[in-house]
Amino acid sequence: MEHAETLATIVDFIRGVGITVETAALPEDGFLPAIAVRDGRLVYDPDRLQYPGDLLHEAGHIAVTDPALRPTVSEFESNGGDEMAAIGWSYAAALAAGIDPSVVFHDFGYRGGGQSILENFAVGRFLGVPMLQYYGLARRAADQGDQYPAMIKWLR
Q1: What is the DSSP string of 119-131?
Q2: pTM of the prediction?
Q3: Closest to 60 in 3D by CA, of 80, 90, 94
């Protein structure tokens, strides 16, 4: 899949789950290059975005945020549980969108640990699933229905 086609697929998926995505010139980087979160909306600079999979990870943060707080969020605190949930969410989202998960877990993300995350997911060692279950986004092992990486819903 080409970069432009991959980006379009990712943006369509994110919008489809109910997260607003906008484009804007972003002269300064947020936590990730060419991406910002503004009042619960995902904003990216199409002229500078190098890794479209990063949008899925940031969308994961928005998705797992408390719905009452989501419209006010412009940056995320370093919260291990929600970081893990965003990782799990973005993996499931990549599969649901038909995107190779390596687009999200690339060599330049996750402090160089993208490949390690992919290797864990490939053998069923899924990160963040307990938080996704706690938030009601994924089924618990005892629940009827498709298990993770299938999701019950995409927004907390």
Answers
A1: HHHHTT--SSHHH
A2: 0.94
A3: 90
Per the listing, tokens 């009827």 go with 144
Helix axes 80-97, 53-64, angle to 10 degrees: 120
Planar angle of CA 138, 140, 143, nearest 5 degrees: 105
Say how far apart CA 55 and CA 89 lie, in whole Å: 12
- List own/partner pairs for 20-24 with CB under 8 A and 24 or more apart: 21/55, 21/59
Tens place of pLDDT per residue across the chain (156 aa) = 568 899 999 999 999 999 999 999 998 877 889 999 999 999 999 999 999 999 999 999 999 999 999 999 987 766 778 999 999 999 999 999 999 999 999 988 888 899 999 999 999 999 999 999 999 999 999 999 999 999 999 999
Crossing angle for the helix pair 53-64 and 3-16, to the nearest 10 degrees: 10
